[in-house]
Amino acid sequence: MKAYENVLNYLSVLKLQGILKNLDELISDAEREKQSNINLLTQVFKSEIDYRTQKRYERNMTGAHFPVIKKVEEFEAGKVKGIGKTEIINISDCRWIDKHENILFFGPPGVGKTHLAIGLGVAAIEKGYNVCFERCTNLMRLLKTAEIQKLSEYRIKRIMKSSLIIIDEIGYTPIEKREANLFFNMISQLHEKTSVIITSNKGFESWAEMMGDDIMTSALLDRLLHHARIFNLDGESYRLKNKNKKEE
User: Fold this and answer.
1) Which residues of the chain have pLDDT under 50?
2) Backbone angles phi, psi at 245, to 5 degrees
3) What pLDDT shows up at residue 248?
């Protein structure tokens, strides 16, 4: 009994919580199945790795700040023009993140831009990447207040250290001159270091007006479009379609 208590203490000191949590079950299974010592050790170490992998996944999902959880496989590609099942499968492998490529989804409201963005973000986290999601309006607020508010500063630091940043709904609200400058500086720092997913209801031709500066907008798009995959989505709004169904 003393030896068992010592083992528990050692596991606690070493912070091997996965093993500590599953030790009794692992020992019972080993005795019942008459496992060799090496097999038992394999299962012990595997339990710790599985535990840490799950905890990292949970932390990353919490830190991503997704407004809802969406899966790529739930997206009805056949009902939207501009992207097909093969293309969705190809980008779901997330290898483009290793190449620091960007993905841009354009289209009217309700066609699934945010669904795809979140779905790719969840897929990236499942593959071990760090992801941050922010709606454009909140990102601008964070950028403006990062120097005076600790919470904003902390969030921006996390965003800048992520493997993938999702910026949702660019173009739904006006962007002030200072916000545009801060946004440009952020994208410049991320260029060829971090992947970005952007969703927008406005085409490139409207961005200069939205940003209020033709030269800066040109430089911004130059960085975003370098190594980028662009999808122009079109189709019937999911939200309007579901609303009409409920009213029938």
Assistant:
1) 243-248
2) -65, -40
3) 45
